[in-house]
Amino acid sequence: MCLVSGGLDSATCLALARRDGFECYALSFDYGQRHQLELEASARVATALGAARHLTLRIDLRAFGGSALTEDLPVPKGRSAAEMGQGIPVTYVPARNTVFLSFALAWAETLECSDIFLGVNAIDYSGYPDCRPEYIAAFERMANLATRAGVEGRTRVKIHTPLIRLSKAEIVKLGHELGLDYGLTWSCYDPSPQGRPCGACDSCLLRRKGFEEAGLADPLASVP
């Protein structure tokens, strides 16, 4: 089971799981985010990497708001690395990874699957609390208390976060070594009406930094 957002990190995570011999079921969410481009990217990634099945579930988190990704709030632009490393930005979606992992856990139990892959990263990221190792460890402990399969001892859930301690450059290099086409992915929080990356939001800046430090060209940099 792999959570696939359509972004660079989740695509690399899925490619790693496939390399390591897992039969992968891909799970994505239409949660009311600002645009559909990442959902289109998640479908491309899941197909290209041979997911056994790809589900996209609709959960309308716009009902709660609280994030620039789910309501009409300005997306921060042009922030420095130091600024991104301080505080929790308005692009944080309240409890998003907890919501997503809960759905993943339900599907995994149905599939009798004990391995859930998540492309979170705690090095080059924007300060989201649900991307930290201590959060993942806590959710894994909870998951093994919360399911019938866990209580009966039939499966023990493992949350795999192979990218959590890698820099964005290391992630890009890893994906390149795996033959991953990053042209399939999408990162921008606030694309133009023409579907071009804004180039200035945190996600665009972190993506650019990763490719530059990896010494590789980003295939999306030339999107017309």
Provide an overview of this structure.
The chain has 224 residues and is mainly alpha-helical. It has one domain (2-222): HUPs (Rossmann fold, 3-Layer(aba) Sandwich), CATH 3.40.50.620. Helices cover 38% and strands 9% of the residues. The chain is built from eight helices and five strands, in the order E-H-E-H-E-H-H-E-H-H-E-H-H. It has helices at 8-19, 37-48, 81-84, 96-111, 133-146, 148-151, 168-177, 202-214; strands at 2-3, 25-30, 53-58, 115-117, 158-160. The strands form two sheets. It has a three-stranded parallel sheet with strand order 1-2-3, sandwiched between helices. Helix 1 (8-19) crosses helix 7 and helix 7 (168-177) crosses helix 8 (202-214). It is globular. The model has no long low-confidence stretch (mean pLDDT 93).
Quick overview:
This protein has 224 residues and is mainly alpha-helical. The chain contains 8 helices and 5 strands, in the order βαβαβααβααβαα. The strands form 2 sheets. It has a 3-stranded parallel beta sheet with strand order 1-2-3, sandwiched between helices. A two-stranded parallel sheet has the order 4-5.
